[in-house]
Write a structure and sequence with these properties.
alpha/beta, Rossmann fold, 2 domains, 5-stranded parallel β-sheet, 9 helices, 5 strands, globular
């Protein structure tokens, strides 16, 4: 059983744009036969992409070069959590489609008649419309992403959560709202999952700062089984320009400080000279004149 402790998470700053050349080179080496890979490229890395589009784009590039790559080494957070559900022997995801929503609505009607929602529906004979169910679905999904369902003090959610859990038992599946928290709990109380059994480390490409807390908790739990190294874009945290960081810590400053599983490479300078000119305007009306001047130059 895993003894949880300090998270194994590091980060470094990289320029915005494409995947760093040192990483892309390692990915291509990784797609070759293990026999032909040089010793310094032996570490097997899993890449977590920010979205499915960027994942498909890089896999398409590898395919166009004739590489036979292992798709399991190229994940998004969404695809990884689906893999872990099966890996950790959790019930499959329930297909939350119209048929499920009809069943859910009927369950809400039954519970409303039992005064399960005393503030929203204080009279047993009061009509429970689809709109009420729909709003609870949206609210529960948001609270689940942020991991605050249990602490929520507003009306309706705890009864609604109980209804979802009852449906999970009846249908033999995992509701998407519950998936990340269940995986996190399981990771905190299990041996290394098969998904990471031969992985030396995970490289997490730059993600937007709006990453849900439920995904953050899952990734932190994963780092107790397999180290994570983040590649984040620099920028102003307050304005949301900086890449998301799983831990509030300083980035790696030199190649000597890189984790052992990361290919040796030069660290980009955070204070690299930027070829830009700043124009300070006293009035908004000056903007058109300055813009015209820049275009002419």
């Amino acid at each position: 059983m895993l003894q949880t402790g300090r998270y194994s998470i590091t980060n470094e700053l990289v320029s915005e744009g494409t995947i760093p050349s040192w990483l892309q080179e390692h990915i291509e080496w990784q797609a070759l036969s293990p026999i032909s890979i040089p010793e310094k490229r032996k570490n097997k890395l899993m890449i977590i992409y920010p979205n499915e589009e960027s994942r498909k784009e890089n896999l398409s590039k590898l395919g166009s070069k004739g590489f036979a790559f292992d798709r399991k080494l190229h994940q998004t957070i969404e695809s990884l959590h689906i893999s872990l559900l099966a890996d950790l022997r959790l019930p499959r995801l329930l297909p939350v489609q119209e048929s499920f929503n009809i069943i859910l609505h009927q369950e809400c009607i039954i519970e409303a008649k039992k005064l399960a929602f005393p503030i929203i529906n204080p009279i047993p004979d009061m009509d429970w419309g689809r709109g009420k169910t729909s709003q609870l679905v949206k609210l529960h999904a948001y609270l689940s992403k942020e991991g605050v369902v249990k602490s929520w003090t507003g009306p309706g959610i705890h009864s609604f959560n109980r209804i979802l859990k009852n449906l999970e038992k009846k249908l033999g599946g995992t509701h998407p709202d519950m998936a990340y928290s269940r995986i996190t709990d399981k990771l905190s109380d299990s041996n290394k999952p098969f998904t990471f059994i031969d992985i030396d480390g995970i490289i997490m490409l730059n993600h937007a700062p709006s990453l849900p807390k439920s995904q953050k908790k899952m990734l932190r739990a994963i780092s107790n089984h397999c180290p994570i190294h983040q590649l984040a874009y620099p920028g102003n945290f307050r304005l949301g320009h900086h890449g998301y960081l799983l831990m509030d810590q300083y980035p790696v400053k030199s190649k000597e400080d890189l984790p052992e599983f990361i290919p040796i490479h030069e660290i980009e300078s955070e204070n690299s000279e930027i070829n830009a000119t700043i124009y300070q305007l006293k009035r908004e009306t000056h903007s058109f004149r300055i813009t015209s001047s820049i275009v002419r130059d």
